[in-house]
Amino acid sequence: MIIATAGHVDHGKTSLVKSITGVDTDRLAEEKKRGLTIELGFAYTKSDSGESIGFVDVPGHSRFIANMLAGVSTINATILVIACDDGVMPQTLEHLQILELLGIETGFIVLTKIDRCEETQIETRQNEIKKEVAKSFLRGCPIVPVSSITGRGIEDVKEKIEELAKKNQEPSNPGLFRLSVDRRFLLQGTGLVATGTVADGEVREGDEIWLMPPKIKLKARSLRVNAERKELASLGDRCAINLTGENIKLNDVKRGNWLTKNLGAATKKVVVRMKLLSSAQGNLKNLSQVHFHAGANHAQGRVVLHDLEKHSKNEISVVTILLSQEIKLCYGDHFIIRDQSASVTLGGGRILNPFPPENKKKETAERETLKLFTFESIESDILTYIQGLKTSVNIKKLVAFFNVPERTLLHLFERKNLTTLNLIEVISDANLKELEQRIEAFIEQWQQKKLGERGVPESSLAVSFEEYSSDLISHATELLITKKRIARHGNVISLCGYRVQLSSNGENLWKKISPILKETWKKPPVLHDLAKELEIKPKNLEEVLAQLIKADLVLRPIKNRYFLPGALDDLKSDIFKAVDSNNEVSVKSYRDVTGVGRNLSIEILEYFDRQGVTRRLGDKRQILE
Known about the structure:
The protein is α+β, with helices and mostly antiparallel strands and 625 residues long. It contains 19 helices and 33 strands.
């Protein structure tokens, strides 16, 4: 369990932590000289049950809010420290607002320096504090009067910490390991060490992890969890990792970098759900420049207000933030924004999408889906996202987006009957059916416009449905064929039952051609003989026969002869009648069965070779079907 102190400068946060743990968290010489916390400090103790409890002591001065934010991004609870002689001060309220924006829901208040005050003043201060926090997550929480000088109330604070520890729920580990670096240093005899609180997942000694965004592969050589040597660090643990990697240097690791098993790219553009504080009134307009804080990250950015209007106090809205530098962010990460001068906290919220599309139309449509996220169930929000995008979603993108292991996603897809293609992309059943309907409608419209065409060139589907992957279009097409809603004819597709409409000339000639082909069945006349019999030029006849082929009325298996489909079926059956004891067919045996002559028998067998019915082996053919 990790607890952070919070409160105004010089209200006794560091002294309180020392009284509880015996550790002075002010490490720097300048801090000791000035009696002022500048950097984050850390201390540890044990609960009665043996659970390790970590304390993050944050600076209270307004100039060091960025350091404070780096320390409280992944805590479980807070102790709001208020000096009895000063009462509630500006940083008291700002820290409280920040904690609330970061989603902290648990904690209590310590009223320090009571040795300087009369009992009546202590009581008055408590009543004042209750009014100040009445609308915050600390409403109704205990207020413990304390003196770090006399020791009064320290045991009461320890009891409250015990109560927090008992209520603290063991976190589940659904995500990939992530840790935002808040400190890094070289330790003699050990090497490079980076510290932070595990924001998700777990890491073991020897695990391969990545430094992001520079994307440097590292190894977690050893771990210290809450100041103790451990082999495993999990969600919520305060962790120091001894890092090794090829040519890794201290300067390669920066505060705000992530150590992670999530290889998703860093981003300079995020869509967020944001709540504004009263301090934002009049200070936030479209493209306002702000300071952006997430984890231990700090960057400048601009806020894009999509309705192009000023946003009012406490309003929750979906906005886009354009960052000045790449940051590794994921769905659900909390963030804070401060004004351009970094002197006022304007608001904060959570990341909806770290990878918004560059296409403005797609981005606008996607925002409507993102507005449906609840953050109550990651599974529910993943399904909402997949359903809302209409097309398929790349699974690796979902891994990076939601920081969920691929195996967890695949298990979810299986339970929810989602369609996955080649373990690369996923689509909901409703969206897949919608694609099938769109393909059918597209083919129908094509056929209405091009009555003389046999069907739609299958390659045109990818052009017409460019928002879908080629694999998904092929999958939907095969489903429609299986369901007998469309049919494939070579490289074109049509609705089942569709026939090319013949021209009036084609209809008239078909009535003359059909009887001739029926009469000659297995040995129809060659093109020129058929043209002579019909008293038509061969070129004109060939044009009509091309229409008949598109209408599936005739087939041309060999260059100069046209067969009725039934005749070819019979010729195929004759192959099986002509086989010998070795299941092979000779030209002679096939000629004898069909009675069509040697040369035509050869041409027909060569056609069936091309169709994969037979395969030539010397002078004979082997049946493959």
